[in-house]
Amino acid sequence: MRFFVGSLLRGEIAEYYTTTCADLAARFGIADVAEIVPPHITVKSPFDQQNAEAIDNCLALNTEISPIPISLTNWNHFGTRTVFIDGEKSPAELDAYISDIGKKLRTIGVPANLEEKGHHLHVSIARFLKPREFEGV
C-alpha cells in the first residue's frame, strides 16, 4: 500500500487553500485538489508499506501538535505537473517535527527522505497537470 504523512493546516491558510483550489478547478477545468486531499504540509513523501497498523502505532503520539505559524509567499511549480504556493523558510519547530516523524518511521523500515534534509515548505494547489493545463494555470 502507498502512504504519505501530512500535517493538516487550519485557519486562514486552510481557507485560502480550499478557495484557491476550487477557483483553479473552475477556471481551468482541472481537478479540485481540495476535494481529493485536505489542506496539508507533506511531512513524509509517498512510500510503500504493507502494514498500515504499524504506521498508526508508530505515529500515534504525533496526532496533535501545537500550532506552528507559517506564511505563504509566491506561486511556484515542480516541473509542469504540480503548482504550489511556497512557504517562507520552515520554522525550527516544523523542522524538528519532520525530523521526529522521520526517525519514528525508520523504526518500522521506512527509509529517510529529503523532507528531513531540507524541507521545501509548500502547499500544492494543482497536481497531475497535463502540459496544456499547466500553461493555463
Which labels suit this protein?
single chain, 137 residues, alpha+beta, three-stranded antiparallel β-sheet, two-stranded antiparallel sheet, 5 strands, globular
Give an account of the 3D structure.
This protein is α+β, with helices and mostly antiparallel strands. Helices cover 41% and strands 25% of the residues. It has helices at residues 11-28, 33-36, 52-59, 92-106, 114-118, 131-136; strands at residues 2-8, 40-48, 72-78, 82-87, 122-126. The strands form 2 sheets. A 3-stranded antiparallel β-sheet has the order 3-4-5, with helices on one face. The model has no long low-confidence stretch (mean pLDDT 85).
Secondary-structure topology with pairs:
Layout: E1 2-8, H1 11-28, H2 33-36, E2 40-48, H3 52-59, E3 72-78, E4 82-87, H4 92-106, H5 114-118, E5 122-126, H6 131-136
Antiparallel strand pairs: 1-2, 3-4, 4-5
